[in-house]
Write a structure and sequence with these properties.
The structure is a homodimer of 291-residue chains.
Chain A (H helix, E strand, L loop, with lengths): L1 E8 L2 E10 L4 E9 L8 E7 L7 H6 L2 H8 L2 E4 L39 H16 L2 E11 L1 H12 L6 E5 L9 H11 L3 H5 L3 H6 L7 E6 L5 H5 L1 H10 L4 E6 L6 H29 L5
Parallel strand pairs in A: 4-5, 4-6, 6-7, 7-8, 8-9
Antiparallel strand pairs in A: 1-2, 2-3, 3-5
Helix pairs in contact in A: 2-10
């Protein structure tokens, strides 16, 4: 991987990298914030998955997360939302399909299947790459995201038991099979088999018996997409039915924007730091023969 | 003035307003962040002047200032950087002259003089408007800015003794008469009389006897514009010669971007809060993201 930009922020470094992705079969760009602590020791990483139309740039510029990451000693790993480039299939006139709308699935349908393998990219290829090249504690990962990226964070954590120590989301698409954004992408990327869709649908994964992990979700009540696209209450219902540990915080007056994310990202990163630290303590005890 | 947007952030409200400016003779747009405290009492205001090419949008999206303003009980007043609109003179092919490059002066030369009255707009018309329409403590004002806006903040505070309780700047253009950005705009807006230029030049205003006020400036050592455009050392020299109370902090590794501003904006707002009102005990809040 090649470092193409490095900017000092809060005593750490906000870097941008480019590399050839094997699974997406194209060049991918991502950003990483390394906190000051990473100059002297390896740190845990919080993966951030962005929403429709975003690149790695939106979160690093708008969320104000680097300040908290610096304080908490967390790295931020910020991938793009889809494969990119002139060779990569796209529907330029649509913001909710193709480039910028990878939906964090492994596409099975042509022409998408050649490049749109974002699930494997985010859960496998990218962690392996950054954990080998950067001062990160291998396997010490949390994941979060916004909207389509909130959906991505939820399914990655629900499908990859033990791969992430904690998960949170801002205004996630909780039940993509039931909303037009999700249906449009699932049909294009996965075909017509709705049972295949269900393997990338957070509400269905929980309903179908995904192992319990603590979920933290913030949802603005003034969110313009709440009624039609997000289906937070469907997730709430299946979690209640299965006694799934969901903390869904309804935030009065907040919309779908990065101003909503900026308001609560500090609490989300503190929540992830707690889980990432807990695991560290447990592992230290377990791997210390003197105890 | 008409409220055209309102977004909840950190418990307060980030609003955008449009109004007819008398002094700029056109419609102007500006943003205001009102902290939670403003729902129950009047608050002091920090005016933020942005740099070349910016509108009111850049600072509100990129600086992460609203979080600190909410904690400190400060309003943020964020004007545009020039008059705007199809009727307003511009040089579309230049980023450093015309719309987006008002340089915070009152233009005396045609065709600019009709609309480019940003000095009077920022120091007179805008404060009168917002202090009459919003929950602000009349006359309780601080001013800060970045690059061209840092120049603007410095000259407003130096020329308007008693009108601002404190002033700070990020990578300000300290001696515009001596750099190409300043010379280009001063020549266009003010003509060839360099003594007129000197009345809008921070270094010259101090050299020529401006009354002492505490100045806080942060300057990145990796700033790509430091050598040619900013002339921070000229300001340092005249301040030393006149025993002017300048705190110029050279920040190693930092560039000219909003990531630099985001890193230090909290300290600048705390500095202004000190001068504007009894400082609240925000240290814990500031270092505990969970709050």
């Amino acid at each position: 991987m090649e470092k193409i930009e490095s900017i000092k922020e809060f005593g750490g470094w906000l870097n941008r990298y480019r590399h050839r992705s094997q699974v997406c079969d194209c060049e991918m760009t991502f950003s990483v914030y390394l906190p000051p602590l990473a100059q002297t020791e390896k740190v845990p990483a919080v993966y951030w998955l962005s929403g429709l139309t975003c690149t790695d740039d939106n979160f690093r510029v708008k969320a104000g997360a680097q300040r908290y990451a610096a304080e908490l000693g967390l790295a931020l790993i910020i991938p793009d939302t889809s494969p990119r480039g002139p060779e990569v299939p796209d529907v330029p006139e649509r913001y909710d399909l193709g480039q910028g709308a990878g939906f964090y699935v492994n596409a099975t349908q042509p022409p998408w299947s050649k490049n749109y393998q974002m699930y494997d990219y985010v859960t496998r290829e990218l962690p392996a790459l950054v954990e080998s090249e950067l001062p990160l504690i291998p396997g010490r990962r949390a994941i979060s995201g916004h909207s389509m990226g909130g959906h991505g964070a939820l399914i990655c954590a629900l499908k990859e038991l033990g791969r992430y120590q904690s998960v949170s989301a801002f205004a996630p698409i909780c039940h993509p099979m039931a909303c037009s954004w999700g249906q449009g992408c699932f049909k294009a990327y996965l075909g017509n088999n709705r049972e295949m869709w269900a393997t990338y649908d957070a509400a269905r994964l929980i309903e179908d018996g995904a192992a319990a992990i603590p979920l933290l979700i913030d949802q603005g009540i003034a969110d313009e997409f709440l009624a039609q696209q997000l289906h937070s209450t469907s997730l709430e219902r299946v979690c209640a039915a299965r006694h799934f540990p969901l903390t869904l915080r309804w935030q009065e007056g907040y919309d779908h924007s990065y101003h909503f994310i900026a308001t609560f990202i500090g609490e989300h990163l503190a929540y992830h730091a707690d889980h990432l630290r807990e695991t560290r303590t447990i592992e230290t005890a377990a791997t210390n023969p003197a105890r």
